[in-house]
Amino acid sequence: MLSPAALRYWSWTHRWSSLVCTLFMLLLCLTGLPLIFHEEIGHWLGTEVQAPALPADTPQASLDQVLAAAQARHPERVVQFASRPEEGDALWFVTLTPTPDPTQDFKSIAVDARTATVLSQRPVGEGFMHVMLRLHVDLFAGLAGKLFLGCMGLLLLVAIVTGIVLYAPFMRRLHFGQVRRERSARLKWLDLHNLLGSVTLVWALVVAATGMINTWADLLIKYWQHDQLSALLEPWAGQAMVPVAERGSLQQSLEAAQAQAPGMRLSFIAFPGTAFSSPQHNTFFMRGNTPLRSRLWQPVLVDARSARITAAPALPWYLAALLLSQPLHFGDYGGLPLKVLWALLDGVTIGVLGSGLYLWLCRRAQARREGSA
Length: 373
Known about the structure:
- There is one protein chain.
- The protein is α+β, with helices and mostly antiparallel strands.
- Among the domains are: 4-39 and 136-215 and 338-372; 54-122, Nuclear Transport Factor 2, Chain: A.
- The chain contains eleven helices and eight strands.
- It has helices at residues 4-36, 38-45, 63-73, 128-137, 142-170, 185-199, 201-214, 217-232, 250-260, 317-330, 335-372; strands spanning 78-83, 91-97, 107-112, 118-122, 265-270, 281-287, 297-303, 309-311.
- An eight-stranded antiparallel sheet has the order 4-3-2-1-5-6-7-8.
- A hairpin with a 5-residue loop joins strand 7 (297-303) and strand 8.
- The longest helix has 38 residues, at 335-372.
- It starts with a helix and ends with a helix.
């Protein structure tokens, strides 16, 4: 049983942690709804690239041919990344940028993996879904925006925990889920707020916690580069980036990486000098075929000149936690039924946040009336 002083402390903490983050959480919930269905929306809008139908035994084109076809579209740019879709091997997506350094100025080219034919240049940095994604991820403010939203996620966790503490003694006077419809509008909204909060409790904890972890992605990757990659790549420290003309066959590098990680599928490739690689290596990020392992990466560093394996370091625990948190946050690991469930819970959470804001405004209005009386 909470003492009156403890009750006031928990109530104050719950109120202000909720109020500070409410508007931002409402924004994240609203922008998160279309992002849950980004694949379906892409198909509906016609922005998803579809590979043409070819016989099943059609051989794959060389990776060198694929990248050359993409590079021909923008010869003034460098290839920074190349990736495969999660399902199927009919496409490559090639990212080209002005320099290997991290940037928002990039072109994404879809290439048929069997014919090395450019299928489309996907629009990047424009459109409704891009605006939703940037608002949801970083408020168009880069790393600072991500860390700010991470702080808002932490406040939401505090609000949820303090709400649980306050709800337990409150419900001793009522049946679970009871809504006092015969009382004032404020009490009805309070009961609805508590009921909806209890319905979404576990989901909100999971989504808030994983969302907060995702905001640390840039920092965790930089720490991994400093903590582990720098030690692995010490023999090449200080060397300049391998010129494109001196690089060996990318197809041979790919085959070497696949031989190093048998039974795994390629997720993406980071080329020399980019954020996920070194100036001397092509880094292949492989993923497993099981539901769990498909979310985890196995980096394989291949010498860009000789196509020989340099290292295949194990993924550190903090990057594994980051990668495993992403499907829990986005709800994209169970097909359309899970996406619908995620959307329904997101909608209920909007109701929780909105009702909490309404209750605070009612409380303020009542305090003003009592003060003027």
